[in-house]
Specification:
- By secondary structure, the chain is of the alpha+beta class.
- It has 2 domains: 11-98 and 107-182, no CATH class; 190-288, VSR Endonuclease (Endonuclease, Chain A).
- It is 41% helix and 14% strand.
- The protein has 13 helices and 10 strands.
- The strands form 3 sheets. The chain has a 4-stranded mixed β-sheet with strand order 7-8-9-10, with helices on both faces. The chain has a 3-stranded antiparallel β-sheet with strand order 1-3-2. Strands 4-5-6 form a 3-stranded mixed β-sheet.
- A hairpin with a 3-residue loop joins strand 7 (206-212) and strand 8 (216-222).
- Helix 5 crosses helix 6 (131-141), helix 6 (131-141) packs across helix 8 and helix 7 packs across helix 9.
- The radius of gyration is 23 Å and the shape is elongated.
């Protein structure tokens, strides 16, 4: 019961978020009156009869437990900081043999239920599925490019170990094995992975996380002369960030490189615009290319 009074939760703690039964609380020394007092004082929340969570547990976790399951798939990975493109949810893991599952109620009508056996068994007291289970579900729930970006992100963050990939792909239908050679944990963001995959069909070579002397490390180097930096609002906002990017672009131009800065939103939701921009630059070659 070490987390009973802990707040707030860190992303790393969410993966092991406890869900206590009445029997477990009583075994820890809490009387029936103590449990009621903890709920009244805002230290515990009871999403459903016989199940208790810390009162500051994330809303999606509370919803999952209230429906008799565990948080999983893109919903869990998003809480852990992993890139996911799919925004539906919350996604809930339910055992195939589950019975007496509550009906979807107001406020939970967007819940996505996964009636699948767990890839890796977890003790009853966890409120979230294991990471491997979440990644397997996220691959099934997203388009192939987004699925690769999710795996890249989980590997890069250290939440998924390289050795876990065998377990992930063993749990997926055979057709998904074609994705495995495309995984690259060096990618530092989901948009970077998506951009790398877009470039595969239109460029001769795509290098990842390249150190350019006088410029620094760049996200992608295309055909040896076009630098592609996958910008996001979080990392490239503000005057100082724009100044830094400008100085890097000038240094790259002095060395004969061109630089393209597609925004993450365009990479994710308007990829055809990004592809058209890259095709336009590549068709003119390195000599006539201009910055941005």
């Amino acid at each position: 019961m070490t987390h009973l009074m802990t707040s707030p939760w860190t992303p790393a703690e969410i993966a092991d978020l406890p869900c206590w039964s009445t029997a477990e609380l009583r075994a820890a020394g809490l009387r029936k009156r103590d449990i009621a007092d903890a709920i009244a004082a805002g230290r515990l929340v009871r999403p459903r009869r016989g199940s208790y969570l810390p009162a500051d547990a994330p809303d999606d976790v509370v919803t999952a437990v209230s429906l008799g399951g565990r948080l999983t798939c893109v919903s869990l990975l998003r809480l852990l900081g992993v890139f996911v493109l799919e925004r539906s949810g919350p996604h809930i893991q339910l055992p195939p043999t589950a019975s007496r599952v509550p009906d979807i109620a107001a406020g939970t009508d967007r819940a996505v239920r996964h009636w699948m056996p767990a890839v890796e068994a977890r003790p009853r007291w966890y409120a979230c599925s294991g990471i491997v289970d979440a990644v397997v579900r996220a691959v099934l729930c997203q388009p192939p490019r987004a699925a690769i970006a999710t795996i890249d992100s989980a590997l890069h963050l250290g939440l998924l170990a390289p050795a876990d990939l065998a377990t992930v792909f063993a749990a997926l239908p055979l057709r998904y094995r074609a994705l495995r050679p495309l995984i690259d944990a060096r990618a530092e963001s989901g948009p970077e992975t998506l951009m790398r995959l877009l470039l595969r069909g239109i460029a001769r070579s795509v290098e990842v996380q390249v150190q350019v002397s006088g410029v620094g490390r760049v996200d992608l180097l295309v055909d040896g002369w076009l630098i592609v930096e996958c910008d996001s609002d979080a990392h490239h906002a503000g005057l100082e960030a724009r100044r830094r990017d400008g100085r890097r672009d000038l240094a790259a131009a002095a060395l004969g490189y061109a630089t393209l800065h597609p925004m993450a939103a365009d990479i994710m939701w308007r990829p055809e615009r990004v592809v058209a921009a890259v095709r336009g630059l590549l068709s003119r070659g390195p000599r006539s290319a201009r910055l941005r």
